Amino acid sequence: MDLYFSPLACSMATRVALYEAGADATYLEVDPPTKTVLKDGSDFRAVNPIGLVPTLRTDEGVVLTENAAILQYVADRFPQSGLGATQGIARTRLHQWLCFIGTELHKGLFIPVLDRKASQEVKAYMLEKNLSRLDYLDNYLKGREFLLDHFSVADAYLVTVINWTMATPPIELAKWPNVKAYYERLRQRPSIAKAIAEEFELYKAELARKKAAA
User: InterPro entries, from UniProt (predicted)?
Assistant: First the structure.
């Protein structure tokens, strides 16, 4: 299968899941400004017209988009990994957390703060409105190792999003000690440590390309 990604973007969650599952995959980096696949210079929008990562092409050639859907596919495709939840309320809880991370944290909180074109007024408003989501998460994680009763694709997604606090100074993890402890603990997990290290190096290369082109 092929994973189209950009360094340290939300697509890193799928990289973590694939590493966790021990799955074979080809990782195809997409340049965010130009939507170019760096390996061959092709237009990524020919694969995903919206131009967003992650995008996954399965072994059967099916193209999947949207982070939560791709993560659930990986969990179902590799059930031996234990990344998902098979049925009943446990599976619904997994869906719940994927939705919460995607809407309340990823899109609701972090994207506005990371947006370089957003005004300081907009960023301040979004922080005031949505920081309560981290209060909720901090309270939930008290005494818990993972979001479910085991490491799942939801944890892969959450760690990826929390990792963005490196670039969002107004969101200081020390204010949420349980979230901070969770993040620092899971960063030591081999699949996550490997993904972050690899993508950070690719991100530095991306910055160097931008500087050279300026």
Answer: Glutathione-S-Trfase_C-like, Glutathione-S-Trfase_C_sf, Glutathione_S-Trfase, Glutathione_S-Trfase_N, GST_C, Thioredoxin-like_sf
